[in-house]
Amino acid sequence: MRHNGGSAAGLYEGSLLPEETKAKELIRYAQVIVDVPAKQTNRPFDYIVPSELREWVSVGSRVGVPFGPRTLQGFVVGLSEQSAMSASRLKPIEQVLDLMPPLNPELVQLARWMSHTYICHDITALQAMIPGALKAKYEKWITVADTAAGGGSPGGQTYLLDASPEEEEIVAFVRQKGNVTTETMLSRFPNAGPHLKRLLERGTLAEVQTVKDRLNAKKVLYVEPAVSREELLAHSEKLPSGSKRQKELLRFFADSSEPLALAELTEKLGMSPGTVKGLADKGWLTVEAREVFRDPYADRQFARTEPLPLTEQQAVVLKEIADTLDRRAHRVFLLHGVTGSGKTEVYLQAIQRCLDQGREAIVLVPEISLTPQMVERFKGRFGEAVAVMHSRLSNGERYDEWRKIGLKKVKVVIGARSAIFAPFSSLGLVIIDEEHESSYKQEESPKYHARDVAVERAKQHGAAVVLGSATPSLESFAKTAKQPAIESEEAADSAYKLLTMSERVEGRPLPAVHVVDLREELKAGNRSMFSRGLHEAIEQRLERGEQTVLLLNRRGYSTFVMCRSCGYVVQCPHCDISLTYHQVSRTMRCHYCGLSEPEPKKCPSCESEHIRYFGTGTQRVEEELGRLFPGIRVIRMDVDTTSEKGAHEKLLGRFRNRQADVLLGTQMVAKGLDFPLVTLVGVIAADTVLHLPDFRAAEKTFQLLTQVAGRAGRHQLPGEVFIQTYTPEHYSIVTASGHDYESFLDSELELRRLRGYPPYCELVLVTLSHEQVPLLVRAGESFAARLKQLWERERLSLSGEDAYFEVYGPVASPIPRIKDRYRFQCMIKYRGNVDVSAMLAETSAAFDETVRNDKLLISIDVNPQVLM
Ligand code: ADP
Ligand code: ZN
Ligand code: ZN
């Protein structure tokens, strides 16, 4: 894809440099993007920087600014001495919301690149970069309106013509308080609703909005001596003998002058805070509130690990990466290393190199493999220099980890997708583990892919990027120079460098894989969900005291409810998809709109009572295990058992401590786990993903099978894998069972080429939705027609180049209705030097009015991962 101007630099002309080059005192104006995601406000607005705030306003600051009648949050994207607007028409910035700007100039530029590439508003891109805790929170207040307050009526009552006594009381209350939140108002006057509405409508009262104060850093009281050791001892002597506790406290600080948290101190010495306060009042001790960082790992000790001597393959790979780091060059590596080849050790040593240069590193891992085990490996090597960002942290914890980055207290961030926005200023290395994972793509706006954002950031920093996987995505593989899929010169320059580790550490063999044909099992009279082979293998593990991992991939195997008499499947009345049965609550739920209904007793269509749920859930497998292997200890890991904070960690901890024989779960058990006693992996049904309407179905199947098989036999004991399937001849299953990425790649690339899918072209999915089909059809057709027109114009300027552009559709989406809105989609396939983002932005701009007036929704997904 072509991005005008190549890199993002220069998009906000003149705004990148002033911080460094211009003296702060020359700054008079700030350009601010305000928190209103709409086309009319999608540009920087000029504000005056008041002199008292000058020190605190930087590019990347979050500020509160007046905008019309309200105060809004905004981000400073530029600073200047002059404004094109006359100063009398400009308003000053009201608040600077954080002492430390949450973003920096480079990230502000990156937001610009994101809004262009992914076709979203600037504010949406900026908001995506900061932790949730910093997102705009507004408070609404009720005050007496200006006109009313100054209404020339000293008694303050007379202007209330025809006001009821209740209303007069309400106004008096508000006047006395200054401003009141709606909640306070309603708790004082429970029936105020209608009165309030009338007073607001008549302009007696007004609603004002302010940006809620910044999230506070956590403060803890610390105690330390205020005088010398000798004085402490002298005071202690002079105190009357009854003041035993005070004497003790003084002697304590005479022994150690280190500051200590008040809570810790009182507990240690078994005294009350009053004793401490008494001495502080005398001026002998100081008690002071200090900022502390909420550290989710505070109570954990991480044993320091030393770098391991590398295997030959690891050494070759590390040298390549280190050379690039030493040259401070930008380069993308694709590290294809089989499971257990020791990729993590390579990451760790590459990071060490980067830190030695005084630069910083970001490590992305998929959310579900951000396990304690993973964190331990990084904390163990780099200790306090590591910050961890994942969605299970509380808002406060995440805010603190983020602040540590800005304060340069940490050098390495490990986290899920959004950690790519860590506000480092001299980034040297980005590592993306399991780079093929679809969770790196954000499914809501901005629909960015962390891999592409990483490459863009690394370009700006002259940093290296390492994409690691045992099963690289076809898109990434095609970007390695070896692949002929991309031919242009520009592409050859930015080609990824392929690095390979084909062997497991210490020559450990990859596990033996048995593919089991479930049709044959049925023929042989086995109706259980466990084939004879897998059954026997589990039994053996139980006898030997070894462990088993069982994968049940529930996706596409949904537990729907069907009538056995007439075939009716219970569907959501608002969305065209079947409801999913939840056994615990005995309810039917819609995964799209959240509808929840009791399980039907009779078929709504034919009234038959033979209506029941189908499909295999993890719970059913668990029950079956208990029935077949009495006494077996099973840990089940799925969305239901891991919803609580820390549950994930606890379950894995129990499994590691051998408190269970079997770890049974969904995709969660397939990734990243490394347990020495796991010698058996079973896949209950391999082909559940294969039949999804998605051109990546085969690739996802291959990846999942390879990943989960890689959990077996990673240490001394050899591993064994059983893959149960109804389509044992499918190439993705055959190649996965042979650990044969190359053959899979050959077959899959050939199919993609024939069908015209990535990496042989790029995709954009445009989905339009509306409550009425006729309007939707008209909008869809005209959207497609406009795009085609634009292409006709664009192609003239591209004459001679090998460019391709095609719009497919509009057609009904695979899920044709969600929440009572019908859905149509257009699929765009293109290749070559085409600025599709600009064309799409122009096209959707033409629909602004329909979007505003008729509530048409247009969603644009560049390089979509989900095609529903
Ligand atoms: P991958 O991420 O490639 O699947 P890991 O990084 O988890 O593999 O490594 C697999 C196992 O090999 C881990 O237990 C790791 O500690 C060990 N290991 C890695 N490198 C070495 C090495 N150079 N020498 C000895 N053991 C190693
Ligand atoms: Zn629904
Ligand atoms: Zn029926």
TrEMBL record:
One term under GO cellular component: primosome complex
Example GO BP: DNA replication initiation
Gene3D superfamilies: P-loop containing nucleotide triphosphate hydrolases, PriA, 3(prime) DNA-binding domain
A matching Pfam family: DEAD
Keywords assigned by UniProt, alphabetized: ATP-binding, DNA replication, DNA-binding, Helicase, Hydrolase, Isomerase, Metal-binding, Nucleotide-binding, Primosome, Zinc
UniProt-listed PROSITE patterns: HELICASE_ATP_BIND_1, HELICASE_CTER
EC number: 5.6.2.4
Names of required cofactors: Zn(2+)
Chain's role: Initiates the restart of stalled replication forks, which reloads the replicative helicase on sites other than the origin of replication. Recognizes and binds to abandoned replication forks and remodels them to uncover a helicase loading site. Promotes assembly of the primosome at these replication forks.
Family according to the record: Belongs to the helicase family. PriA subfamily.
HAMAP family the record matches: PriA
Subunit structure comment from the entry: Component of the replication restart primosome.
Protein name: Replication restart protein PriA
Organism: Paenibacillus ginsengarvi
Originating gene: priA
